[in-house]
């Protein structure tokens, strides 16, 4: 599967890219929303993973943009245990498909990501 990952922390992005690439996915990383938008104009992807630990207004706009354009591309929110339930619920209400806790290397999170490729 081709996966675009928006992660604001460079080390966390590198880790996610490594984990998902090792699991057989072709991954593209972006450190900011603007870079993600440019990437999505150039590369067709099957899944988008968004850093959703502390989303700002721009991140909400990015999520709404991904979901508004009639896109069938699933969106996964990446959260931490400290992410408030209100923020997670707002992201899901704005169009995201699921949320997964960082880091993405657990068997459960990889299985849920792989399931998008099977549908």
From TrEMBL:
This is Response regulator. Residues 2-117 form the Response regulatory domain. SUPFAM superfamilies: CheY-like. The modification 4-aspartylphosphate is found at residue 51. GO terms for biological process: phosphorelay signal transduction system. The keyword Iron does not apply. It comes from the Bacteria. It comes from Paraburkholderia elongata. The keyword Phosphoprotein applies. InterPro entries: CheY-like_superfamily, Sig_transdc_resp-reg_receiver. Keywords: Phosphoprotein.
